[in-house]
Design goal:
alpha+beta; Aminopeptidase; five-stranded antiparallel β-sheet; three-stranded antiparallel β-sheet
Amino acid sequence: MGEEILTARLRLRPWQRSDLGPLAKIFAEPEVWRFPFGRGLTLQETETYLSRKIEEQHSGPSSPSAAEERSTGRLLGYVALSPPDWFPALMPSVEIGWRLDPAYWKQGLATEGARAVLEHGFTKMDLDEIISIYEPENAASGRVMQRIGMHLDCETRHPFFDVPLHIYRLSRAEWVQATGVGVHPPPGSSRH
């Protein structure tokens, strides 16, 4: 099935065609896509999204994206790395983002998944930096970005919807300094 990332409560795995039904129910919820669309997605829109993500999985390095609850196997949405190609001024870059079933909000799952995906991006995909983008009105997403160690880089406007956006950023060096992951003693040093 491909690479997986396991956290205490989540299994992040590649997308499958069989995810369409449960994903369509989640994406149809208006609050899931309130930013930027102000509405839920149609079945066709979700099918297009899923097909594109499955194609991306086969066309180059990507992170496991589909987020399942480990204890039940239930699809909860996604936590993923992907290029923000909808915003040409930010390219080339890699964005971390998440959209989860509202029934599972306010439980720390986005933060838990995002920390694991950041580690995957910096250690397995060898990324130099990762960005994240949110509308200031979506304060919950901004708090997740801050919890995972990202910092405000700039403020701009959405290229299509002309709403304010905040761009957060985290470099691999900053992440290593904050987490200690990947830090090894110099050769010949002793740990006693």
